[in-house]
Design a protein that fits this description.
about 190 residues; Porin; eight-stranded antiparallel barrel; 8 strands
Length: about 190
């Protein structure tokens, strides 16, 4: 089994120190969908930390689906920078600290800057990792009022794979505003 894994994975990493010269200073556009998105990642960390510090139980997390468009520019042979814009819609029951349930609808608009680090960059297959930081604007509407507020957000994606030359498909595994699994189509210009 180890030999089989070695035969499959090793060719991806041979020569992966440099990317193809044609892709340096290249542009990439992506359209993606991320189920199980959680744009309130930083808010969750603060709330959970404060709750644990004061002996309260952590609140239940509600996930949504994130739809996004991404633009990336390959600035270095091992790194590209980009900007992401996306939206999340949903409705759910929210339980507050007084244990009251209320129905509400939410719309999240997210804008973030991301950095993509290439692990292996071959002509057809690319393995990468992403870190991103941005802001999301939340509009919450319940049966009484509508509130709008902004909160910082982030995305940590330790593993992503893209398959294709000019047009391709990609899948990413991480946590944050894009979702636990994010997939879609991309085009290199």
């Amino acid at each position: 089994m180890q030999k089989l894994v070695g035969l499959v994975v090793l060719p991806l990493f041979i020569g992966s120190v440099t990317c193809n010269a044609q892709r340096l200073h290249q542009h990439e556009i992506q359209i993606s969908c991320g189920p199980l998105a959680r744009p309130q990642l930083l808010e969750d960390l603060v709330t959970s930390f404060v709750g644990i510090f004061f002996g309260e139980t952590a609140p239940e997390l509600e996930f949504s689906t994130f739809y996004a468009a991404t633009y990336r520019y390959q600035a270095h042979r091992r790194m590209s920078i980009g900007v992401v814009s996306g939206i999340t819609n949903g409705s759910t029951f929210k339980t507050d600290y007084s244990h009251l349930k209320s129905f509400y609808k939410h719309t999240n608009g997210t804008m973030a800057f991301e950095t993509e680090f290439m692990i292996a960059d071959r002509p057809i297959v690319k393995l990468y990792a992403i870190t991103a930081l941005g802001v999301h604007v939340i509009r919450v509407k319940d049966h009484v009022q509508t509130k709008t507020y902004a909160w910082p957000t982030c995305q940590i994606t330790p593993f992503g794979i893209r398959y294709g030359r000019k047009l391709g498909a990609f899948a990413e595994i991480g946590y944050g505003y894009k979702g636990i699994v994010n997939f879609g189509l991309s085009a290199r210009l």
